[in-house]
Design a protein that fits this description.
This protein is mostly helical and 239 residues long. 74% of the residues lie in helices and 5% in strands. The protein has one domain (2-238).
């Protein structure tokens, strides 16, 4: 079964190839438009601070964080963290990414349903990530034993399948959250007059490329679940 499981790793190839493409697309568009300054000249951190204040979200702080593309909204600490390359920049990439994170803050304020679902799944997924592979390995080991241990192995294996399913649900719930945040970002940049039409199209390129990474994560999680199901079901048929 071990050999068969790794042999079926070929099922993951489309997901891996797509993930590599998505990452390449993100890097290319981000680097290109991080060198293209907006005509408005407003810095990302200044724009977000202004948007937070007029939206009644004054308790949320805007901070600079180390790293590249490490931007995030942390609802627990009430912070929008912008990477150093974004924080003080007025580039197309910086403004788009910053407004995307502001979009998440608006989702929380408005109790956007997919955002609320994803929020519930976050702690569950953290537990899943720790339990998944131990359950799988234990299940495979027990399936090589007696019939009694095989039954116990099946319990562990099907538990692992259930955890794979939760991972798929999490990635599925993430997609509408991320696409909606990008949609909000474009709308904000347009209605505030921060970017002109050409700049908005460039921003869409950056945000659409970033969204592909979440599509890739979903694809890989689905293929991983399929791979494991084929191995487990194939083993049961042989028995």
């Amino acid at each position: 079964m071990y050999f068969e499981y790794y042999l079926m790793g070929i099922i993951l190839l489309p997901g891996i190839i797509f993930a590599l493409y998505a990452q390449s697309k993100v890097s290319k568009t981000y680097n290109e438009y991080s060198q293209t300054m907006s005509q408005s000249g407003v810095k990302a951190s200044e724009l977000i601070r202004r948007l937070l204040d007029v939206s009644g979200l004054k308790t949320i702080s805007v901070k600079s964080t180390p790293g590249t593309l490490s931007d995030n909204y942390n609802p627990k600490t009430q912070e929008i963290n912008l990477s150093s390359a974004v924080y003080n920049s007025s580039s197309i990439s910086a403004l788009g990414i910053a407004c995307h994170e502001f979009g998440h803050a608006l989702q929380k304020k408005e109790k956007y349903v997919p955002y609320e679902i994803r929020k519930i799944l976050v702690p569950v997924t953290n537990i899943v990530s720790r339990l998944l592979w131990p359950l799988v390995i234990i299940g495979l080991i027990f399936n090589f034993g007696t019939s009694a241990s095989g039954v116990l192995g099946d319990i562990f294996l099907w538990s692992g399948i259930g955890l794979f399913g939760i991972a798929v649900l999490f990635n599925l719930a993430t997609l509408p959250v991320e696409y909606d945040a990008s949609k909000r970002a474009i709308k904000i940049l347009k209605t505030t007059g921060t970017l002109n039409e050409e700049e908005l199209e460039q921003t869409k390129e950056v945000l659409n490329a970033a969204a592909l990474t979440y599509v890739a994560a979903l694809l890989i999680s689905v293929l991983n679940l399929l791979r494991f199901l084929l191995v487990v079901l194939g083993g049961r048929n042989r028995n």
